[in-house]
Amino acid sequence: MDRYAEIIPDFESFKACLQTPQPHYIRVNTLKVSEEKAVSKLYDLGFVLERVPYLKWFYKVLGTPGYPITHTLYHWLGWFYVQDVAPGLVSPILEPKKDELILDLAAAPGGKTTHIAQIMENTGTIVANEPVTGRLRSLQANTHRMGVLNTIITQHNGIMFPDSGPFDRVLVDVPCSGEGRARETKSRQKGAEPGFIESISGTQKGLLRRAIQLTKPGGIIVYSTCTFAPEENEAVVNYALQNEPCEIVPIDMSGIPHSEGLTRWQDMEFDSSLKHTIRIYPHQLDSDGMYIAKLRRL
Amino acid sequence: MSKRFRYKGQIINLDFSDKWTELVKDYFHNRFGVDPTFWKPYKIFNRGDELWLASFSLVPQNIRIVKAGLRLLRVKGNPKPTTVALQRLNKHINKNIIYTDIETLSKLLNGAIIHVSNFLKTTTDGEKGYVALAFQDLIVGCGYISSGGMVKSQIPAGKARELKDVLRRLVGDFYS
C-alpha cells in the first residue's frame, strides 16, 4: 500500500485504520418491514445501533448481545442486509427511479441489486447479471430473502452482454483487486500484485464499455470498485471517456468525507473531469475503501 | 401473454395468462384469507409446475433468464404454497395459522409431527391442508395438517437448518 502514500490523505491514519476491526453496518429493508419496527426489535434483542446520518436506512452496529446480528430471526426473514456504508453509497449515486429499466452488470452477491430494488420500491425492472455460476446462488438467495420481486437474474459474460434494453441506468460494479477490503482480509494489506492489476483492468475496461453501449442516450452509468489502484479506477474510466460517447457527471457528496478522483498518477495523465469521481478511504468513513464514477451516455 | 427464452439449450416459458392469477387469488383467499386485491400490483406466471410472483414491468429482449420472481405455489396435484410465499404474505394471512413457541417449532424443524391441539394457539379448524407456521407473530414457513389433525413442517431442509440455528441462539443449545 505504500505506493499510495502520495495520494491518500493522512496516510498514517489510513494505515492505522487498516489495523482496526471492520465495523458492521446494516441496511434496514423497507420492502419487508418499517425502519422503526426493525430497529426497535433489534434493540429489544440487545443490539446497539446508531443511525448513519448521510445514508438512508443504514445503521452502524455498536454493540451486540454476544452473537452476530446475522444470527437473528430478523436477518433470516430479510428485515435487513449487512452492508458496509462505502458500497452502500453506490446505489443512491445511481439514482434509480421508480418504473425505470436498470441493468446491474456484475450483480452477485446482490447487496447493491437489493438496495436498488428498495429505492425503486420493487417497481420497474432490474436485470441482475452474474456470469459466475458459483456466485449465482448467493444472488438468488439474497434477492429472495430480501423480498425483491422486480428483478430478473441472468447469466451472461458481461463484456458480451447481448444487445438488450437500452437501459435507463447501468451499474457496473466490477471484479477488482479488492484492496479496499483490507480490514477484513489481512492478506490484502500488502496491496495487489501488479500483474493481477494489469490483467483485471482489461476486463474492467471491457465491462465499462459494454455498460455504456447498453445505456440509452442521456442515461446514467455508475462504475465502482473496492480498490485503491488508479489502474483499475481512473485509468479505466479515462479509457471509456476516450472510446465511448460519455461524460463524467459530478457526484454530490456534500457533508460526506471523501477524496476527489485523480487526474494524474505516476506517468499517466487523466481527463480533468475525473476529479469529479470519488475515492473513499477506510479512515474517512470507518468503512471499506471504494471508488465511484458516474457517467452520462451521450 | 407468453414469453420464451432459451437458456443452456432449454426453452424457458414465462406464461403470464390470467388463469394463473385467478388460481392464486382463489387459493390464497380460500385457504389463508388473503384479500384478492393484494395481488393487483403483481404479475403471476407459470414455469413448469410452479406459479411465480413478480413485479417487474417488462422483460427485455435477448436475455437468458436464470430466475425471476418468487416461487409461490406448486400446482401439480393439490396446490402447495412455498415457505417464502407465506413469509412474504405474512400479515395478509389471517386463517390457517399455527402459532408455535420455541419448543414446538424446534421439534417441528427436527421432523416431529405434533397434534394441532398442542400449539400456543391456532386460527384453523383443523381441516386437512397446508397451514402457515408462525413464531413470535411472524410467519416463518409452511406446515401441513393431515386428516388426524397432526401438524408437520414443510419448511425446506436448508431453510429449516438456518432457522434451527436462529432458535439455538435464542435459547442456547438445549433444543439442538
Defining key terms:
heterodimer, A: 298 residues, alpha/beta, Alpha-Beta Plaits, Rossmann fold, 2 domains, nine-stranded mixed β-sheet, four-stranded antiparallel β-sheet, 30% helix, B: 176 residues, alpha+beta, Archaeosine Trna-guanine Transglycosylase, Chain: A, domain 4, six-stranded mixed β-sheet, globular
Structure report:
The complex is a heterodimer of chains A (298) and B (176). Chain A is α/β, with parallel strands linked by helices. Chain A has 2 domains: 23-83, Alpha-Beta Plaits, CATH 3.30.70; 85-297, Vaccinia Virus protein VP39 (Rossmann fold, 3-Layer(aba) Sandwich), CATH 3.40.50. Helices cover 30% and strands 23% of the residues of chain A. Chain A has 10 helices and 15 strands. In chain A, strands 5, 6, 7, 8, 9, 10, 11, 14 and 15 form a 9-stranded mixed beta sheet that branches. A 4-stranded antiparallel beta sheet of chain A has the order 2-3-1-4, with helices on one face. Chain A has a two-stranded antiparallel sheet with strand order 12-13. Chain A is globular, with a radius of gyration of 19 Å. The model of chain A has no long low-confidence stretch (mean pLDDT 95). Chain B folds into 2 domains: 2-81, no CATH class; 90-171, Roll (Archaeosine Trna-guanine Transglycosylase, Chain: A, domain 4), CATH 2.30.130. Chain B is built from 4 helices and 13 strands. Chain B has helices spanning 18-32, 83-89, 102-109, 157-171; strands at residues 2-7, 10-15, 43-47, 50-54, 65-68, 70-74, 80-81, 97-100, 113-115, 121-122, 129-135, 138-145, 150-153. Classes of the chains: A alpha/beta (298), B alpha+beta (176). Chains A and B meet through strand 6, helix 7 and strand 7 of A and strand 5, helix 2 and helix 4 of B. Strand 7 (151-154) of chain A pairs antiparallel with strand 5 (65-68) of chain B, so a sheet runs across the interface.
